[in-house]
Each structure stands twice: as structure tokens, then as C-alpha cells.
DinB-like domain-containing protein (Gordonia aichiensis NBRC 108223), 169 residues
Amino acid sequence: MSEESERDEHADETWFDAASDTAERCWNGFLAVLDDLSDDDLNRRLSAPGSNAPYALVHHCIEMTRWWLGTFGCGLDIPRDRAGEFEATGTRADLVERLAQVRRDADVWAPRMLRDGIAGRAARGTNADVDLDTVTPQWVVLHVVHELAQHLGQLQVTRDLLNSPVSKG
């Protein structure tokens, strides 16, 4: 292997390690927010139009990751009801279990997709404004990390507002 090839391979590994670390920080952030919410608040929306309950936000992130990495990336047949994701309700225990599973799955799916290429390019199940015929595996990984970070911020603000005295009063 040439020195340039070794450098390129190391850059690919370093890039993926950074993306994986950022995703892990987001998943850990979701768990921390869940710890800060009562069971009642887990499924409660803010009064603002278009707000989502914390459960629905985390559920959406799980399903988004399953679709982009599992269905689109690896060609797996994983059903998705994107519109219904924001109406989902459930328990903290359910989310914690599902978060653990999607993290394990992502640890398998992302490297497979990066190694083998996108296997489910014909899949549809997203409203992302992107040409699914031309995105790269690297773009998919970054998109998932972007969505996780975005929704973690949304979840943190939602938690803060749900836990505020005004919301409780």
C-alpha cells in the first residue's frame, strides 16, 4: 500500500470515528433528557403549534436512523410510517430498549454501507430534499448525525419548557 493510500484510509477512519462519536453523544443526550422527564411529560406536547412530544421526537430519530442506514443504506426491508412517527406514544423503558437496539444496528449498518455502497437506493420513505440517486454513503452518515443533533436540541428545549414552572402551573 502506498503512503498516499494509507493516508487516505486513515482519513476515512478518522472521519468515520468522528461521525460515530458525534452520533454516540447525541444518543447519550437523548437518554439524559429522558432521565429528566416524568412519565406524564414524556408523551406531552407543548402548547405551541407543531410541537412534538419527547417520546415522538426520540421515536422519530430511531425510525429515521433505521430507514437511512438500514433500509436505504443496507437494502433491508424495514417498514416506516414517517407521518405517524410524530404521533407515537409509549414508555421510557420502550425507548431505552429501542435506543440500545438502534445503536447496535447502526454500528453494523454504517460500516457495511460505507464498505459496500448504498444497497437500497430505490427505497422511498423520506421527505429530505435530496436526490436519492446521487447521495453518497458518507452523505447518508452525515445526514443521520445532523438529524440526531438537530432533534437532540429540539428535545432539550422541549424538556426545559415542559419542566418550567409556567408549563407545570
